[in-house]
Amino acid sequence: MNARRRTVLAAGTAGAAALVTGCGSSDGDGGGDESSAPASDGAELTSTSDVPAGGGTIFKDQKIVVTQPADGEFKAFSAVCTHAGCIVATVENGTINCACHGSRFSITDGAVEQGPATRALPAEKITVDGDSIRQG
Ligand code: FES
To answer: FRET pair for 89, CA 20 to 30 Å: which of 79, 81, 104, 132?
Structure first.
């Protein structure tokens, strides 16, 4: 008997497919576009018409309160309450008022008119240029 033997080559190198699991090229979280506003001197803060005479206006972002204690006389103070650091909330009745615990400060010189704060609001430098009020 002539048995033919076929040698079957086991040709099965079954696709050793190196499955490259594509981890997409994430290039991180670049591009956080923080607009870092320049804290440079001379940045325009507001215009004189936005600050009421006998009152004031609070600029929370700049942490400044601008007041007009007398016609045409502008002052600026830190808007950070010296008691515990809240941003002051209102300017009314001749005082800059903190809503956190009720401190009140003079619009004329930042002095404490009512506690619990014990230190005046520090003055901030502003320049009035025509009807424009600038920091610095
Ligand atoms: Fe302003 Fe306390 S933080 S009164």
So the answer is: 132
